[in-house]
Write a structure and sequence with these properties.
The chain is built from three helices and eight strands, in the order H-E-E-E-E-E-E-E-E-H-H. The protein is of the alpha/beta class and about 170 residues long. It has two domains: about 45 residues; about 110 residues, Cupredoxins -  blue copper proteins (Immunoglobulin-like, Sandwich), CATH 2.60.40. A hairpin with a 2-residue loop joins strand 1 and strand 2. Helix 2 packs antiparallel against helix 3. It binds copper (II) ion (CU).
């Protein structure tokens, strides 16, 4: 009896200890996983707003595609295939507080736009061919003001941007 009983008690004791550890362990794991789960859930639920995306603008022969790009604040724009092109923001037309960009000729460029607004830009070597674009960040309310200012300040081939601005439709 004893020879059989002792190992059994030992095994039961081990099991109880193991169970004790198991019951202790999960709450700790759950506490850690709790906030992470919440974060994952909330970012999945509202994927469009807070999750920043990268949008590609492809430079084709003498045109940016897409010419008019709609993004959300915090999104990134990546110009690709920029051999023989550049992308230069029209500093006077972009939103207050936003940094104008100037890509090097022939180099791809990636920028993140945090400030809502309208960002007209050109390819300097090809603006005469109308190689220009507009990025709309969020739902800006100053489209008419930007158009008016563009009509006032843009000179020569840069006036090709006016046609691009006329294609802009502010998202509802
Ligand atoms: Cu170009």
């Amino acid at each position: 009896m004893r020879a059989w009983l002792l190992p059994t008690i030992f095994v039961i004791a081990v099991l109880i200890t193991a169970c004790g550890e198991d019951t202790e362990a999960p709450p700790t794991v759950n506490t850690d996983a709790g906030p992470q789960d919440t974060t994952t859930t909330s970012s999945t639920e509202s994927q469009r707003a807070p999750q920043s995306q990268t949008h590609v603008v492809n430079a084709e022969a003498r045109v940016f595609r897409p010419e008019i790009l709609y993004i959300q604040p915090g999104d990134t724009v990546a110009w690709t295939n920029m051999t023989s092109h550049n992308t230069v923001a029209v500093a006077e037309l972009i939103p207050e507080g936003a940094s104008p960009w100037r890509g090097k000729l022939g180099e791809n460029l990636k920028i993140t736009l945090d400030i809502e607004g309208i960002y007209p830009y050109v390819c300097e070597p090809h603006i005469g061919f109308g190689m220009a674009g507009v990025i709309i960040v969020g739902k800006p309310r100053n489209l008419e003001a930007v158009k008016a200012k563009a009509a006032e300040i843009l000179q020569g081939p840069y006036r090709r941007l006016l046609g691009k601005l006329n294609k802009v439709q502010i998202p509802q």
